[in-house]
Design brief:
mainly alpha, 12 helices, about 300 residues
Amino acid sequence: MVSAHNHLARTIILTALALTAFAANSVLCRLALGDRTIDASSFTVVRLLSGAIVLFLIIKIKNKSGMLTKGSWSASLMLFLYAITFSFAYITLDTGTGALILFGSVQITMILLSILSGSRLHITEWLGVVISFLGFLYLVLPGVTTPSLPGFILMTVAGIAWGIYTLKGRGSTSPVIDTAYNFLRTIPFVSILAVLTFNQMSYSSTGILLAILSGAIASGIGYAIWYSALRGLSTAQAAVVQLLVPVIAALGGVIFVSEAITLRLTLSAILILGGILLVVLGRYDFEQLRLNNKP
């Protein structure tokens, strides 16, 4: 009994830390770019390089028996595409709005790719998809809190890239190692980005520090913590708890960036997250019903 309680407590703590790290990426990026302490390209370069270094150190310390798998170039390209569009999107987006677009796009991308691969959605899942899209439409309607079109497009691309990157890693037998090598493989892309934007680079010690915190801790260590937390979470639980990230990011924006939680953001959050929750729980309930009815 004591062991079970300890395992539950450990899972809760690790999950909370991981989700906070994911949300911290939004807050740190917005702090760095919103205050113009660093440009988007430099932020991306420092973030990916510091994440690669930390993850590589982690696998060197923890994986003494040799490498099992080493990621892929296609996954690394998606990781780089996510990182660069994420950074440029946050030049014009608020923390909470950016997080909503990002995680909404991630979930919708994964759902659509699942449909294209032959999976069938039942009524509850379709209802969730429709509600989520209504939330997106409401978010971009004309109004003072409407995100800029470039920011919305860039963050949507970031979400699509992250969704594909996530799906590519579902079959990984050594996710931390794969993630480390995916980060390492972004170095050629990062080098090209640095050369192309060298004359436009603008940074300060504060901006570099924020980028290192985002890459080394919120991305590198945050991902390692998340993989540890997944050992105590079912697939449905892992999917549902991630829906808390935009909420955490929005609160972080209020606390650290002095942003306001507007009525538009609140209502769109309810629609998007509520719709995604219906999709996730709908699939879970459908699978449970199917298993219970098996002869």
